[in-house]
Every structure is written in C-alpha cells, then in structure tokens.
Amino acid sequence: MKKLDQQYRERIRNAELFLQLETEQVERNYIKEKKAAVKEFEDKKVELKENLIAELEEKKKMIENEKLTMELTGDSMEVKPIMTRKLRRRPNDPVPIPDKRRKPAPAQLNYLLTDEQIMEDLRTLNKLKSPKRPASPSSPEHLPATPAESPAQRFEARIEDGKLYYDKRWYHKSQAIYLESKDNQKLSCVISSVGANEIWVRKTSDSTKMRIYLGQLQRGLFVIRRRSAA
C-alpha cells in the first residue's frame, strides 16, 4: 500500500508539472501568434492605403486627360463672355478713365498627351470645321474611303457592370482578344481587368500590361477583335 501510494503521488506530481509546462507553452504560442497577426494587419493596412492612393492618382490623371480633350475639342468648356449694359454718358459727366490694371496671365495647359496625339486631334478638328466642297466624280474625295482613311471615324465604346461594350460586342475580364493599333500592329492579348473608364490588357508574348482608355477606342487609336482562347 505504501508503494502504491508513493507511485500515486509521483504520478500526480508529474501530471501537475506536465500541465504547467503545456499551459506555459500555449501562452507563449498565443502571444507569438497575436504579435504576428497584429504585424500582418498593419502591413495589410499600409498596402491597402498605398493601393488606394495609386488608384486615386490614376483616376486624377484620367480626369485631367479627359478635361484636356474637352478643352481641345471645345465641348461645353468654353467660358462665355458676360453681357454688360453700357449706359449713355450724359453731357456733363466726366469722361470715363480706362482701366489700366494688369490683365491676368492666360491659363497654362499641362499637356498630358503626346505631340503626335495632339496634332492628330487638331488635324481632325480642322477637317471637321473646313467647309465641304462638291467633289467631282474623278476627284479622290468622291471615291469610297477605306476604314483606315477616315480619321474622323468613331467607334461606340462604353463600360457597364464591369464589362466592355465595343463595336456591338461585349468583352469581359480574362477574354482573349486581338489588339490592333494604328501602325498596323496586331497583338495577341488577354483582358486582365475592366475599370471605370479604361481597360488593362496583358500581352501573351511577354506578359506585359497595357492600359487602353475608352477615348482611344472611340477615336480608333486601338481596335479590339475577338479571338479563340486556344
């Protein structure tokens, strides 16, 4: 009985020591995982903040591009002069002194487009504003023009519900397409994402990404064609 009682007490003591060791180990693991979770949370918060700032910067640049395009095309951005009434001067009134205050400096534009795109837009505007003369049957203007010869040709392009509607077809994310540029380059691409006013495509040759704005699709700077996913 004494031997059994001694073994019983020894096992109780060992069990208590094992419980204490396991409890300390669990507490250390808890503190370690809590610190790792807090660090991961802070890293994710910083990453999210940087992504939001980058997205806002891209939207700001896009809005500035659209504003510049509207100023070049004159779409509802012209400041109309304010009409003022001029009263007749009475015979005894003094002659008004002209205002010699310094005129405000003209506003400066920060051109975000390339020189080639600006010149192309100006040429298109000049052709649209120039009066059309009757063309003779033998003149080149009377001949049917090919799609590449019509600079004023515009395509219907818009984005709805995360999908692109272009040339009477719908395009979605991860869809395989052909991207044709004005210099007759044909690239095999995949739509990686669809934004609010632009899409991102990824080249299948080198996996580089390109951003295409809706204005570029509407003006025909880039043309999208469907292709099979294989």
UniProtKB/TrEMBL annotation:
Residues 128-153 are annotated as: Disordered. GO terms for cellular component: nucleoplasm. Keywords: Coiled coil, Nucleus, Repressor, Transcription, Transcription regulation. Pfam families: Sds3. The keyword Lyase does not apply. It comes from the Eukaryota. Residues 31-73 form a coiled coil. The keyword Nucleotide-binding does not apply. Signal peptide: none annotated. It is found in: Nucleus. One of its GO terms (biological process) is regulation of gene expression. This is Sin3 histone deacetylase corepressor complex component SDS3.
